[in-house]
Amino acid sequence: MAIEPDTKDWTWVLQRACNECGFDPADYPPQAISQHHRDAFPRWQRVLERADASERADENAWSGLEYSAHVRDVYLLFTERTQLMLDEDDPQFENWDQDRTAEEKNYAAEDPRRVGEELATAGERYAALLDTVTDWDRTGLRSNGSRFTIGTLTQYGWHDVVHHLHDVRG
After folding, report:
1. φ, ψ for residue 139 (rounded to 5)?
2. Are the CB atoms for 75 and 123 separated by under 8 Å?
3. Which of 29, 60, 68, 149 has the maximal Cβ count within 10 Å?
4. What Rg do the C-alpha atoms of the chain give, in angstroms?
């Protein structure tokens, strides 16, 4: 069964805490987030090792496998966007439809072990890139007009990981 696409603008999580997952941007200075990502990799591995990793607990939410594949792709996307912000002045990001990506890549049919390896590799690449950042104020523009600095993009991406770990009880 198809899941209702998420069309919400989640940029509000940069101003206040998320009541669903408890993320508060004030708790996460961008310069410290790379280590938080590294600390999260084992939690994702445990989600993917569950016997029910590919089962949806309810028809309105992805399975642990699907959320893990999504987070892998978030790491790839945020690495690309952060690198653009480092290389170019005020780049504009192409729109990314996470729901279309999930369908096109068929997240539900992916191999959990491979997803776990790819998530850790992509996440480490992103964390390593964050470790090199010296100018957290460089900017980029999302296709919907939201302006990010590298710092706010880093916090926004970390919220995605935290929120989805909450979704899968990871």
Report:
1. -115, 160
2. yes
3. 68
4. 15
